[in-house]
Design a protein that fits this description.
single chain; about 200 residues; mainly alpha; 8 helices; about 75% helix
Length: about 200
């Protein structure tokens, strides 16, 4: 009953977040200064449900895989976001769908599995980084935007993962000896999986 109630709350929150979801290209403001442009780019990665949930899911999995694992995974994430930026104009039409699927799979595996293989974690982190930039830059030509926006997008794509990993790490460091600390992280991952499943379902409506 308690698990059902949790999933229902996750579903409700997922429905509410869909109000801010758009299937069109992100519209970036013109004429803003460099800092405002940077914030605008980062905002897309940190406040759009698709990119945010995928990043948080990857972050939770990283910490469940290994305490302090973000330091190990970060170089791969940096490379992935740069590749996503450089190859954004070559992104397939199904990139958005792919990111939702990858985010859902990452969250589901984090919630279900007791342990994780490094190769699988790194693969999902790389896919998350590349696809997040593909989605954020959908509909935009090469170097159409200001440099500050691109910097915001690249760093924002990393911050969403770092936030998930850091929150999980804080929980483990404070209650590391308690079994429920890892269970709590896995429950959070299950919520993320449920919300991304909802978003995925709405792609077919």
């Amino acid at each position: 009953m308690k698990m059902t109630a949790n999933l229902n709350r996750a579903a409700l929150f997922g429905l509410l977040t869909l109000a801010s979801f758009s299937s069109h290209a992100h519209s970036f403001g013109a004429g803003t200064d460099a800092f405002q442009a940077f914030v605008e780019g980062a905002r897309v990665m940190l406040f759009e449900p698709i990119t945010l949930f995928a990043g948080l899911s990857a972050g939770l999995m990283i910490t469940l895989w290994r305490s302090g694992g973000m330091l190990v995974a970060w170089p791969a994430l940096i490379v992935a976001t740069l590749v996503g930026f450089l190859a954004a104009t070559l992104a397939p039409e199904w990139a958005k769908m792919a990111l939702i699927v990858v985010g859902t799979l990452t969250a589901a595996l984090a919630a279900v599995l007791q342990s994780h293989k490094q190769a699988a974690v790194m693969l999902l982190v790389v896919l998350t980084g590349v696809l997040s930039l593909f989605v954020a830059l959908e509909g935009h030509a090469w170097m159409e935007l200001t440099a500050a926006i691109y910097v915001g997008l690249i760093l924002g794509g990393q911050f969403s993962v770092v936030i998930g990993a850091a929150l999980a790490q804080m929980l483990l460091e404070k209650f590391g000896t308690a079994a429920w600390s890892r269970i709590g992280i896995r429950v959070a991952a299950s919520w993320l999986a449920a919300m991304q499943i909802l978003i995925l379902a709405f792609q077919f409506v």
